[in-house]
Amino acid sequence: MTSEVMAAIVTGVAGVIMTALTALVEWLKSRPAAPESKILLTRSAKAARRRRGMRLWLIVAVFCFFVLLTLIIFLGVQHEARQKVKKILYDSPEFHMNMGDQLADMGDFAGAALEYSQVIEDDQSDAFAHDKRAVALAKDGRLEEALEENKIACALAPDVAQYHNDKGVTLTKMGNRKYAEGNEKAAKQYNKDAIEAYKTAVELDSKVAEYHFNLSQALAGTYDNDGAISECTTALQLNPDNSEYHSVYAILLWIKGRKDNALHEARKAVELDPDNDYAYYALGVLLYLSNQLDEAVSAYRQAIQLNTDRYTSYDHLGRVLYRLGRYREALKEFESAIPLQETYPYQQSIEYYNAAYTLIRLNRYEEALQYVESGIEAYPDLPENHYLRYALLTYFNRHEEAEQERQAAYDLGLSEEEYT
Fold first, then answer.
1. Who's near 179: CB < 8 A, 6+ residues apart?
2. pTM higher than 0.90 for the full model?
3. Spatial CA neighbour of 310 closest among 323, 300, 320
4. Which residue among 100, 181, 257, 277 is buried most deeply as judged by most CB within 10 Å?
5. Pick the CATH number of 334-420 from 1.25.40.10, 1.20.1250.20, 3.40.50.620, 3.40.50.300
């Protein structure tokens, strides 16, 4: 009920009451005078007092009634005002956009995506909101939904470089997921599509380092190392103090055989940002490849200390420790990597294989068999696990089962040379 309607109702009621009061007064005035006898005067005085009392109570009642009505009007107006303010403050696209940004900053990407969807509901043609929702969905792991939003944003605003870059990021994540699942063919296709998205972003705006860097990484995924180095060099020219850029550039230089320059870049990345776990991880990779194993161990341990969720740091540290003959320590790292890959069974199967192989070095054959069987259960199509199970079953004189595993390894593509 609006304030105008309430005011009309109150005015009408007040008019009726005032009319009734006026009629009551006129009636009281028109009554005949009382007899002048003593008895009648006494009775008339008592009646007059009663009438005066009734009139007083009537006046009080009318006053209270009007106070109550005034309070109702005031509360109604206040409620309507609050509703209008609430709509302006809490139901506006600007509010939902700001709330989405705040939730994203706090890491609540699901909540952020929901807020951005409220903006889109208000205006389906808001390309910026579609892009924001795509980024939030991608960070929340909902990549298929994110890609749909990316496509809408790019279609609505094809000349905005950021939208194409964000689309490329989503495609890259989808490719990485497929690779981790063991679907290399799908991974390559997503990476190819990502390259096209990044190239479009660079063509639209060549002054943004991020676009060149993302294109560099995607090109490296197709083994176009020259193109990757060129784009990474441009990114560094635009943003020379970015630690991550130097780390990736270092690895690319190593692949091209420029090992001294590569190590220099990797160390520079650590100097630029001592809190960047990827910088230590990349340095560890190059130290391992250059046979500086003890230094590699230190770099990987520092990477893990900074980020306990990067499974590759545990995996690579385990490999270095294994090579150093420190099998117990290596086993611990492989075991730490296993739960980090629960959503990627292919990679998890590899970590089970690494742990099982290390247990064999420790003469713990029964545990090794349990690990390799867990690896097969996680991802049945990794031939190395079937071969290792074949070897362990042979050790336990379970020859019939062993032969089945050997054949399974053959069927999955493991060659005779790899057996020997």
1. 187
2. no
3. 300
4. 100
5. 1.25.40.10
